[in-house]
Structures are given as structure tokens and as C-alpha cells.
Amino acid sequence: MNKPSNLFIYGKTGTGKTVSVKYTTNSLLETAFKNKIPLKVVYVNCKLKKVSDTEYRLVAQLAKEFGKMIPATGLPTDEVYKIFFKAVDSKNQIVILILDEIDQLAKKAGDAILYNLTRINEELRKSQLSIIGISNDLVFVDNLDPRVKSSLSEEEILFPPYNALQIQDILRERAKLAFKQGVLSNGVIEKCAAYAAREHGDARRALELLRVAGEIAERSGSQKVLLKHIDLAENKIERERILDAVETQPKQFQAVLYSLILLSKGKNLVFYTGDIYDVYKDLCDKINLRPLTQRRVSDIIGELDMLGIINARIISKGRYGRTREITLSTSKELTQKIEVLLKTALDID
DNA sequence: CCTCCACAGGAAGCGCAGGAGT
DNA sequence: ACTCCTGCGCTTCCTGTGGAGG
User: Fold this and answer.
1) Higher pLDDT, A57 or A193
2) Residue A215 belongs to domain spanning
3) CA dist., res. A175 & res. A193, Å (int)
4) What's the CA A58/C1' C4 distance, rounded, in angstroms?
5) CA-CA distance, A141 to A301, in Å (whole number)?
6) Per-residue model confidence (pLDDT) at position A134
7) Do A181 and A50 belong together in one domain?
8) Amino acid A81 CA to nucleotide B6 C1' distance, rounded Å
């Protein structure tokens, strides 16, 4: 029983990394089962908030996969490590640990975790542990602690992004199963692929786009999926993403966003952090919300920017200081919908 | 060339929630 | 009941800075 190498996989989103790994490990599990080799595969997505985006939660999640329940908080971290370690080493087995979106984890919680994990392997007596790291960030591995780097990337695989032609192939495969022949009008596949290729070759996006376009065509009573349905689909996907994001934000985030919407009713379209903060403070007064400091609001603006709800970029107004230049990134209709949504959420009027 | 604005954004740390052990 | 641990949102205090106006 040779110790399997650690493996590092990187490539942009939607290039099939996760699917490939899952497929491979599944067939590995089958072979192992046939030959009575004790193999366990654990898959963890490090990006999922509230599950495993900190050291404690990751290890707790891992332990959970081995049937050990760990509370969300309360234990010292090294205690959790011990529980996990014991669970792995409790019997003869090979364990494959898949850490998806590992770059997110290291960015948020530091690479000490990865070092600890790779070291566990050396201390295991009975079992063997092999780590598969999946990263969307291509340069991520270069910024790692050299010790982690050498042990984690014993083997490396790069998934290049799909180009438009490859996405077309994928879409055609899927279209055969999902659509009756001739339903897709000319150029629909090509257009979907082109959209997705522009988004760094994300095949998942392309498939979703095609699916939603199909739904829209069906609902509008069209016999065929037309090019315009793709535009509508892209619009719809984006709109729903934003509305969903807005609705699930905490109250303070919603208040900051609402302040920006209030400002945008004037004739200006571009605002600065200070403008928003002033309006925000007034708003807090009105709706009985404890105002946060400008420092915090500044972070919130940054996070709203990350969500794509607003655009914020740092500019310098020379003598008049350095600040963020902020605009709404949504269309008029969408902004109105958001406004209505926020009014209910914040209990205004 | 220097100054100085209006913030950006890093660092430390606080208070709370929630859980374990004793 | 009490101590010890963690995560999380937040405050406080701080240093850094691009470029218009002097």
C-alpha cells in the first residue's frame, strides 16, 4: 500500500475541476470496494460560509465527515484537531481529502491550516492521508509557505479554460438530451458559448444560460429558442442574483444601499463615501437603527461592491482628498425593484 | 516641489454568543 | 456556577496616499 501523492489542481471556475475530481474518486471508490481496500473520500468546499471558511470550522467539518459531532464554537482548535486525527487513525484506511476552493480558505484563514494538515500525514500510524487541493486562483500556490507548497503540490494538474468551440461541444451534448431536435434556432448555441467564453470559459454558466433561455422561450409560447431569448436569459439570471443578494444582506448593509438609492434620486450619479455616510446617519435616525462608524460603513461599501450591486473604485480628488467613487451598477428598473424590497425590509413608510 | 484633504485600509481589541470541562 | 475557548461584528486608533492647488 503506497502512500498516494498529494495533488494540486488549479484552473478557473467552470472548467470542470470539481466534476473531474468527483468522477475520478467515484471510480476509485468502486475499484477499492471491489478489491476490499478501505478507502474513504471526504469532500469539503472551503468557500461555503458558515461551514468551513475558518480553521476551526474546516477541521470541525472534517471531523463531522468521520461521524464526530463538533459544536460550532466552544472547543479549543487543537482539541478539534485531535478528535479529527483520532478519527482518521482509528483504523487501517486510506483517506482522500478534497479541499475545494482552497485558495479562499488560505486567503481568509492563513496557510497555517494547510501546514497542519500536511503534517498530520506524517504522524498517522495506521492510515494514509492524501490531500487534493482545488484552486480557482492560478497564482495561489506561489504565495504559499514553501513547506506547504512542496508537500501539497507533489503532483499538479492545470485545467485550462474552455474556449468558445469547446463550450459549443458541451452545449450540443447537453442540448441533445434536453431539447427536441430543431428547437434551437441557428446561432443559439454559438451565442451561448460566446457569452460564457467571455466569462473566462465557464461551462456551467453556459449551461445555465441555455436552460433559462429554454424556459423563457417556452413560457412566451415560442416554438423555438431564439437569439433574443438568450439576452433575456442573461438579464434574468443577473437580476435574480442581485435581488437575492440584496434580500439576504443584514440590515446595516441594506441601510447603506438604501442610502445610495436615496442619493441617486437627485441629479447626480456619482457619490463619495462621505456623502453616503451622511445620508446613512440620517436614515438610521429615522428608522431607529444604531449607526455604525464610517470605518465599518467603508468596509460594507467594499463588500457591496464585491457582490456586484454597486461599483466602487478609489479615486483621488487631489486637494479634496482620496475617497471611493461609488455608483449603482443596476439598471433603472432593477434599482426600483431593489428600492421596494428595501423599503419592506427596513420598514419604511 | 510641497501641502494637505478625505478618506482607504491595517492592527488591536472589545463584547457577545455559544459550547466544554470542572 | 464559573472558567476557558472560538467566531463575529464592530469600534478605536492609526498610518498611508494621489493629486489639485498653492
Assistant:
1) A193
2) 164-245
3) 13
4) 21
5) 30
6) 84
7) no
8) 46
> Which of A1-10, A26-35, A316-325 has maximum average pLDDT?
A316-325
Q: What are phi and psi of A132, to 5 degrees?
A: -110, 115
**Residue A187, CB, strand B, below 7 Å:** no
Residue A202 or residue A216, greater confidence: A216
For A157-195, the pLDDT digits (tens) are: 888 888 888 888 988 988 888 888 888 888 888 888 888
Which nucleotide in the DNA or RNA is closest to residue A299, CA to C1'? B9
Average pLDDT, chain A: 84
As a rounded value in angstroms, the CA-to-C1' distance for A273 and C16 is: 18
Number of structural domains found in chain A: 3
**DSSP letter, residue A95:** E
Contact A145, A115 (CB under 8 A): yes
Positions in chain B where some atom is under 7 Å from a protein CB: 3-11, 17-20
Q: Which pTM value belongs to this model?
A: 0.72
Q: Residue A99's domain is classified under what CATH number?
A: 3.40.50.300
- The pLDDT of A96-125, averaged and rounded, is 72
With respect to residue A1, please indicate whether it lies within any of the assigned structural domains: no
CA of A27 to C1' of C9 (A): 44
- If we measure between CA atoms, which residue out of A255, A241, A315 comes closest to residue A283? A255
∠ Cα A106 A45 A257 (to 5°): 80
* CA–CA dist A140, A186 (Å, integer): 41
Q: How far is the CA of A199 from the C1' of C17 (A)?
A: 33
Q: Find the nucleotide nearest A318 (Cα to C1′).
A: C19
Q: Is A2 within a domain?
A: no
Max mean pLDDT among A30-44, A87-101, A209-223, A248-262 falls in A248-262
